[in-house]
Amino acid sequence: MTSILLGLAIFLAVLLGMNFIRVILGPTLFDRLLAVGAIGTNAVLLLAIIGFVYGRPDGFLDLAITYAILNFVGVVAVAKFLDAKREVDPDALGQAAPLRGERDQ
Amino acid sequence: MSALDWVSAFFLAGGAFFLVVSTVGLLRLPDFFSRSHAVGKSETLGSLLLLAGLAIQNGFALESAKLVLILIFIAATNPSGVHVLSRAALRKGVPVWIHPDDVPEAERRAASAAEAARAERAAGTHGTDGADVTNREVAP
Predict the structure, then answer these.
(1) List of chain A residues whose C-beta atoms are within 8 Å of the C-beta of residue B15
(2) Which of A17, A83, B72, B78 is 20 to 30 A distant from B119 in Cα terms?
């Protein structure tokens, strides 16, 4: 079972890396934040699995709980900050997602 | 492998599947709001299945209790975090993608919404957030 879990951990790490593509590309600031939140959730799962792979899940699960809490607080704090701020830099909002869709152009 | 192992493997495979769905959705969907839909639901379900699979594999122990704790926490916080982010994005006027087939209908609806907002402003009251957002997106 450990080898299955190890494979799953590698798989999750690959998914986590793929989420970074959205952080780098993301046309708007909110896309980047969303992808960062997804990466945080993936990291929690990765920590839990790595704990079982290493055979001492106790400490790793504590780390995972802490990471989940910090991830949530971080995302909500930044979202509330952006919500309350009077002006967001228009470049960060970006018009990159076109109204008329992709097929139209 | 015992029966419990098979159940656990089933949960782990389901969790991996939904995490893949979430990542593909995050990368492929056209705008912020549809991406937040992918992360808010698919990622949550995948996490829950994966953690449940780990807890079943581990059996009845303290680690399983911690896993259930993480499971409950993620089930509560992941969708609400995405919701808070989406609300902030809507208020800041992130552009909304509209399917090309629906563009004339959407433009008509937005034009009438803008008309209503203008009338409201002329009457001396402030438009709501929603009206402002619609107004901004539809300007050609």
Answers:
(1) 45
(2) A83
Look-up of token digits 């399917």: B99
| Count of domains forming chain B | 2
- Share of residues in chain A with pLDDT > 70 (%): 80
User: What residues make up the domain containing B105?
Assistant: 100-138
| pLDDT per position as a tens digit, B47-86 | 999 999 999 998 888 889 999 999 999 999 999 999 999 9
Q: Which residues of B touch A6 (CB under 8 A)?
A: none
Residues B7 and B30 in one domain: yes
Measure CB to CB from residue A57 to each of B63, B78, B100 and give the nearest one: B63
pLDDT at residue A24, as a whole number: 92
Alpha helices in chain B (DSSP H): 3-28, 32-37, 44-58, 62-91, 103-122, 129-138
Is there a single domain that holds both residue B76 and residue B35? yes
Best residue of B22, B32, B33 to probe chain A, by most A CBs closer than 10 Å = B32
Examine the domain organization and report whether B72 and B21 are in the same domain: yes
User: From CA B107, how far away is CA B114, in angstroms rounded?
Assistant: 10
